[in-house]
Structures are given as C-alpha cells and as structure tokens.
Amino acid sequence: MSVDDTQASEGAAAEVTVESSSSSAIDSASSSESEAASSPEEEVSSEAAPVAQASDDTPELPEFDFSAWEGGLEELPDMYRPVGDRLTEIHTKRVTEFETELDQLRRLNDALMVGEEDPRISDFKTKWEESVAQHEALQNEYQEYQKEIEQMMDQEAEAYASKFFDNHPELLESEEMSDALRAAEERRFSMYL
Predict the structure, then answer these.
(1) What would you report as the CA-atom Rg of the chain, rounded to the nearest whole angstrom?
(2) Percent of residues in the chain assigned helix, strand, coil, to nearest 5
(3) Is the dihedral angle over the CA atoms 50, 53, 55, 57 positive or is it negative?
C-alpha cells in the first residue's frame, strides 16, 4: 500500500465520520421538535471548530527548498542552523578520520612498493620508546618520593628519641636500664625484619 493509498483511505474514513455525525445530528433535530432552536448546520459547524483548533497547534516550518540547497550553513533558515552545525561537525570528524586512515595506507603502500620496512613498525617503536621513557620517569619520581618519606620518618624518629631521652635522662645514666631498653627495642623491631 503506497502513501497515496493510505492518505486516500484516511480521507475517505474522515468523510464517512463527518457524514455519519451530520446525519445523526439531522435525525436528532428532526425527531425532536422541542429542540427546534438548534439547526443541523450549527451542530456541524460546532463539531468542525475543534478540528480547526487542532490544526492551529502544529508549528509552521519555514519554506525551504532542500533539493536546491548547496550545503552552505549561511543559506539555512535560523531554525535549521543548529542541526546543520551538528551535521557539519559529524561530517568533518568522519572525513578527518578517513583522510588519516587513507594517509596511513598510502605510506604503507609506498614503503612496501620500494621495499622499505613497514612504517607502522617505526610508529610502534616510537610509541613504545615514549612509554618506556615515561615509565622510567615515573619510577624515578616514585623512588625519590620514597627516599623523602624515609628521611622524614628518620628525622621524626630521631626527634622523638632525643625528646624522650631529654625528658628521661636517668635511663641513659644507668647501664642496667640502657641494656634493658636496647633489648626491648631489638625484640620490638625483630618482628618487622
């Protein structure tokens, strides 16, 4: 079924509905003489009014001949420009990707025709060397950071120990207490070794 057939059948159905509603209005008007004040034409016109209101709600699009349009965004009506801009962005991105891929294939073809090495190999070597250099830089940075943390921990431990012995000088004066303290430290740190 074509579009014309569908539209024709919808139009015929609408005519049948209008005819049946107007004939029922005529029948109801003629059957009751007490309602002589309203005529069938008034009922038909009152039913046609909502249809006219519904057609007013649809927005009117500006007339524009897309078949004659040459693709310039300036030529588009203001209403269509955001869509045109987005389509241009998508098209530009796809064309750029296609051109990049085509360039890579041309380079490959030229290299293979001359008997040279595949240019993708040198590209991958370059990328690999860059990633190795980046990894080494990160590794060096991590080791420097680790040294700084260890130095900071040693400084804090020395500061704590000197403060402790300043507050408790009797522990260093007695040899018995010093030996006990040293033994306790060895037991405590042997768990971590």
Answers:
(1) 46
(2) 80, 0, 20
(3) negative
Which of helix, strand or coil describes residue 185? helix
Express each pLDDT in 30-68 by its tens digit. 444 444 444 445 555 455 555 555 556 777 777 778 788
Dmax (CA) for the chain in angstroms is 132
Q: What is the pLDDT of residues 97-108, one digit of tens each?
A: 999 999 989 988
Answer positive or negative: Cα dihedral of 105, 107, 110, 112.
negative
What is the Cα–Cα distance from 95 to 100, expressed in whole angstroms? 9
- In DSSP notation, 69-137 reads --S-GGGS-GGGHHHHHHHHHHHHHHHHHHHHHHHHHHHHHHHHHHT---HHHHHHHHHHHHHHHHHHH
**Residue 25 neighbours by CB distance under 10 Å:** 19
What are the sequence ranges of the domains in the chain?
A: 3-58, 119-190
Can you read off the two tokens belonging to residue 20? 């049946």
